[in-house]
Specification:
With 494 residues, this protein is an alpha/beta fold. Helix 2 packs parallel to helix 5, helix 7 packs parallel to helix 9 and helix 8 runs antiparallel to helix 9. Helix content is 43%, strand content 21%. The strands form three sheets. It has an eight-stranded mixed sheet. Strands 13-12-11-14-15-17-16 form a seven-stranded mixed sheet, sandwiched between helices. The chain contains 19 helices and 17 strands. The longest helix has 22 residues. Strand 7, helix 14 and strand 8 form a beta-alpha-beta unit.
């Protein structure tokens, strides 16, 4: 970095040196070294803001922002106002967003209004839109975002309730009224959200946006798409489900057969067009959004629009405050227990021998009440977190920091409910673990007991069933074919 800095000071290959230095400064440790080396004085970088090369000015501005150089505030603002190359202006705004620029917010707001009103020629549009986005993000960041409160609890709405395919039928059973079962969930009209937000197998809830287009399919052209969306009931949905005035900050989500680059370009064009079509009652923001406009690519071209509200409270899994890297997601645990529900015994004595932070144990008890619950794990941190999570859930659970294979108890259990570990175990180690699991479970289970467990080792499960004829496979559910994960219901033979 010292050599690069010397080149910059002497004007030797300044553009390349600034680009290389900018790359180095992405590392926080190197950032500290550079600031120590320069004595926190960045005058030589600031001088680059008046260089004849616009790319030198651009990279100098970005470096000053990256280093949070408050001393550069006035210099950056002057350079921004004087800059005659549109492609450089976004860099100044990004730099200003990294420091305290509150005294200049009125000027920046005026600049944003000017750009929004400016009918840019085609060759300028890309850079003007980039500057607009940067200014919007800066102003949202510095002035704060006016949040909206969801108050549409009693509003009847057409929605898509999405889940993983394995849980689709379980989800459909909980949905009352007219419904259409799809591959990934259920389409229905919900009379209220108090009820629907209690269904634990929902992975995602999306509002159906009703358009005036055939089949509810929007054009693939960004400007036409935005105009068609402006004639939909999108703003009506937002107004009737929220307390608070416009604008709403949004982001674009695109699903379909696009490359990452294509999706990025398309999303930016659509977002800009939507801001114009909705007269900035919708503002695109990648960091302050409250709603997502989900565009699903239609098989015959065009896009079907859906709406996700991040303002809609979801308290189903509030108990899971703490987790560890290997923790099962609560919705997955809830779905497994929904499948297993016909096999769950009311007021059972239940045990999870590899309990982690207790998620599966708690979802087992949400599905069907249990009498007593025990959780065992060798990982002490997970046990401590499980105790806190269970307390939040209001469920008394006995957690023990111990190896399952050393566990003894004075009475037997009705159910073993668990997610069998895999981690970095080799095949021989996994084979041994499954053998010991079946043997130990035979020891701790009551005569009519059941094992309900999640596993990605179908072959090992079937092997142990052959080797342990005291057990029988009552049911198996394929959860995700891609990774070979299954839920097994295994019973002791009477």
């Amino acid at each position: 970095m010292r050599d690069l800095y010397e080149k910059i000071k002497k004007g030797i290959d300044r553009r390349a040196s600034l680009i290389a230095l900018k790359k180095e400064l992405k590392d926080d440790a190197k950032k500290k070294v550079f600031l120590t080396m320069t004595g926190n004085r960045l005058d030589e970088i600031m001088k680059c803001l008046v260089d004849q090369d616009p790319k030198v000015r651009k990279n100098a501005a970005l470096i000053l922002g990256e280093l949070h150089c408050q001393d550069a505030l006035d210099v950056l603002m002057d350079a921004y106002e004087e800059e005659d190359k549109l492609f450089v202006k976004e860099a100044y705004v990004q730099a200003l967003s990294m420091i305290d620029c509150s005294e200049y917010l009125p000027q920046l707001e005026v600049r944003l209004q000017e750009l929004v009103a400016y009918d840019a020629p085609e060759e300028e549009k890309k850079h003007v839109q980039a500057e607009i986005r940067a200014l919007q993000e800066l102003l949202l960041q510095k002035k704060g975002v006016k949040k909206h409160t969801f108050n549409g609890w009693n509003r009847s709405s057409e929605v898509l309730l999405l889940t993983i395919p394995a849980f689709r039928d379980a989800l459909a059973e909980e949905v009352t009224g007219k419904k259409k079962v799809l591959k990934s969930g259920v389409r229905t009209i919900v009379p209220d959200f108090e009820t629907v937000m209690k269904i634990r197998t929902i992975q995602e809830l999306l509002f159906v946006i009703h358009t005036q287009t055939e089949g509810n399919v929007l054009s693939a052209d960004p400007e036409t798409l935005a105009a068609q969306l402006a004639e939909s009931d999108l703003m009506q949905i937002l107004a009737e489900t929220h307390k608070g005035d416009v604008p709403f900050c949004f982001r674009i989500g695109v699903s379909g057969a696009m490359s990452l680059e294509e999706r990025s370009i398309f999303s930016k064009r659509v977002a800009t067009a939507i801001e114009g079509a909705f007269e900035r009652n919708l503002i695109n923001s990648t960091s302050h959004y409250e709603v997502e406009l989900r565009l699903l690519q239609h098989r015959e071209g065009g896009f079907v629009p859906l709406l996700k509200l991040y303002t809609l409270p979801d308290h189903r899994f509030d108990y899971r405050r703490y987790y560890v890297a290997a923790s099962m997601k609560p919705m997955m645990a809830a779905g497994l227990m929904a499948l297993a529900k016909p096999y769950l015994k009311e007021y059972a004595q239940i045990l999870d021998p590899f309990c982690g932070v207790g998620t599966l144990l708690m979802e087992r008890r949400f599905a069907v009440p249990a009498l007593h619950a025990y959780g065992i794990d060798t990982f002490g941190e997970a046990i401590e977190k499980a105790r806190v999570n269970s307390k939040i859930a209001g469920m008394q659970t006995n957690y023990i920091n111990r190896d399952y294979f050393d566990f003894v108890h004075d009475y037997k259990f009705d159910e073993i409910v668990t997610d069998l570990p895999a981690g970095n175990l080799s095949k021989p180690e996994l084979d041994d673990l499954y053998r010991r699991f079946f043997e130990k479970s035979d020891e701790v289970l009551a005569e009519d007991g059941r094992m309900i467990f999640f596993s990605r080792e179908m072959g090992l499960v079937k092997k142990q069933l052959r080797l342990h004829p005291q057990f029988r496979l009552a049911q198996e559910f394929c959860i995700q074919e891609k990774n070979g994960s299954y839920l097994f219901i295994v019973e002791k033979r009477q």
